[in-house]
Amino acid sequence: MSSPTDDATDAGRLLALGMRPKHLPARDAVYADLVRRYHEDDEFAELVKAFAEGLGMTMLAVTQQSGAVPVPREESPFELKIDEYAKRTALGNRGVDKMLHGLAHLAVAALAFPRPDDLGNPAYVGYVNVAEVDAVVRDACRVLEQRAVEAEENEDPLDTAPDLERAWRAYTRRPAAAATKDGRLAPDTTRAIITKAVRFLADQGFLVLRNTDDGGSYRTTPRYQEQVREVAASAAFRELLDLGVISITDPSGSIAVTNDPQSGGADV
Predict the structure, then answer these.
(1) For the chain, which residues make up each domain, given as ranges?
(2) Mean pLDDT confidence for 239-251
(3) Nearest-angstrom CA–CA distance, 146 and 160
(4) Exposure b/e, 215-239, CB count within 10 A at least 16 = b
(5) Phi, psi of 247 (to 5 degrees)
């Protein structure tokens, strides 16, 4: 029989393992046992949640597929501030680039999980690549621009028109791709922004690189599915899907993906 100290140690250990984004129960027998205990022992599960609560975090999920997924709330010492994100992704103009990176992250999530059923299916795997994410955001910008024009013609401006206009104008003014003198992708292009966003997600254990076609193709992880399930409740996520710029081409409701695991990505 374990002691309260042992229980507290195990609860802290499970939370610590969950904060190592690329570490999974399938690769660690101790981790797998702790996840199993979380589901079989209600008192232990409550202790883990209490640990997370004390650190300003919420446990989104604890599964053998995703591992423990703790998410810091606002003002938690583990919250990722924009300044830290800027350092990791080398943002230039933080005011504008912050907004553009937000669009990129939103588009990646919506493209990876375009249907509610995709988020509810633990076996579902989404696929994205940099070129497709850029195309989705540009299509969304065109739709928003047209809506703003129509609203102006009808003398009925959109309530959020200034914010929407700022977003699509900032994105469409950036070139999709341009090379520097040494052949690298210019950092102020939209594909460079998306590349930084998906690499950050990969570093966090949310995406896995499949190949480097079209700027990089990635598959989603169960950990990312848990995160996007929370984001999907946001108005911005729903509005992007409602724009109709993400096409579902597979009859099963998934984005069509080539059967060759070494090539391609999603057809949108």
Answers:
(1) 8-72, 92-243
(2) 54
(3) 14
(4) bbbbbbbbbbbbbbbeebeeeebee
(5) -95, 135
